[in-house]
Write a structure and sequence with these properties.
Helix content is about 70%, strand content about 5%. It has a two-stranded antiparallel sheet. Helix 2 packs across helix 3. The chain is elongated and about 100 Å long. The protein is mainly alpha-helical.
């Protein structure tokens, strides 16, 4: 003789689709209760939820990657904001404030920046954000590894070769 648990499992297996449709209809009719119920489940079973997410991700890897690529293509500003937040701890509002404080210009050379072209300059030792730079200035600082001695030596080197008037018009 089957136990109640075995009979219940057999019923769910035999009527899987009908039960799935009924559950979806209930969630649609009761969205607040459904959200609360899902949140309670996630809180009570974090390891099970983590395992389900991993299994779903592995089983649908190509679909997940395609969805992520599409999102990145259609939401470039959100992706940049998310990257700034995770990499530098810089919220979008803080970024906009920094951009406005610098009048939309590179902190070193004064070249005009767009939200997309601005590079976040930060101290690699402390991760403290210093300002927004254009691509050239950001690469330049990176090549000199943020070394004041190296930058001063480069400036001294350049000072030994003064520009002519025609050359200075180009810069």
């Amino acid at each position: 003789m089957k136990s109640d648990r075995e009979r219940s499992a057999a019923y769910r297996e035999a009527h899987r689709e009908r039960l799935r449709v009924a559950a979806a209809a209930w969630r649609k009719a009761h969205p607040e209760r459904a959200r609360a119920s899902a949140a309670a489940y996630r809180k009570a079973h974090p390891e099970r939820v983590r395992e389900q997410k991993r299994a779903n991700y592995s089983a649908n890897l190509e679909r997940v990657r395609a969805r992520n690529r599409e999102y990145a293509r259609t939401h470039p500003e959100q992706r940049r904001a998310s990257k700034r937040r995770s990499k530098y701890g810089l919220t979008h509002d803080a970024f906009l404030g920094l951009f406005a404080a610098q009048h939309g210009a590179c902190a070193i050379c004064g070249t005009g920046l767009t939200h997309a072209s601005a590079h976040v300059d930060h101290d690699h030792r402390t991760d403290r954000v210093r300002g927004l730079l254009c691509s050239s200035c950001n690469l330049g600082l990176g090549k000199f590894r943020d070394s004041l001695m190296a930058l001063r030596a480069a400036a001294d080197y350049l000072a030994r070769f003064p520009l002519t008037e025609s050359e200075s018009d180009l810069h």
